Design the sequence.
């Protein structure tokens, strides 16, 4: 049984700790999450774990908003449109344009993903050249489950 658990945790699942408030209210600082990383292709709406080698020390947790070739527009009120269609974002506590050094509409480079935090006012994400668009090789996995705190135990939507 112990060998099976070690193999699953090594090759299929990973534990991740949320560090910060950029995904609030969906996730909060200190949450412990389970991600899957085997044979995973990010999809719009997925919450993913990202590593940016040599740029950011700890893994980032963000939501995939658009994929390569799609056009993203964020207005002054924080409304996000992809390919001209306004996104329905019920997971946000409030909309905010946040800090961006992009010109909109912004076309996501092919082979990358445009990611945003759910707490748009303070999240550093694809709107900033510090993070930028994320390549497939930088996506560690998809968040699937919260294990801590126990009061929030369950599947992540």
Sequence:
């Amino acid at each position: 049984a112990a060998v099976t658990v070690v193999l699953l945790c090594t090759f299929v699942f990973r534990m991740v700790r949320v560090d910060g408030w950029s995904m609030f209210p969906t996730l909060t600082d200190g949450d412990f999450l389970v991600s899957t990383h085997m044979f995973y292709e990010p999809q719009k709406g997925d919450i993913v774990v990202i590593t940016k080698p040599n740029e950011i020390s700890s893994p980032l947790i963000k939501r995939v908003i658009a994929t390569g070739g799609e056009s993203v527009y964020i207005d002054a009120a924080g409304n996000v449109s992809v390919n001209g269609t306004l996104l329905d974002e019920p997971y946000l506590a409030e909309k905010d344009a946040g800090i961006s050094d992009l010109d909109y509409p912004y076309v996501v480079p092919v082979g990358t993903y445009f990611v945003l935090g759910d707490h748009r006012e303070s999240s550093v994400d694809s709107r900033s050249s510090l993070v930028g668009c994320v390549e497939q090789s930088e996506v560690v996995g998809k968040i699937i489950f919260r294990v801590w705190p126990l009061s929030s135990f369950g599947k992540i939507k």
Q: What stands out?
A: Residues 144 and 156 are 5 Å apart (CA to CA). The helical segments are 2-11. The first helix runs from residue 2 to 11.
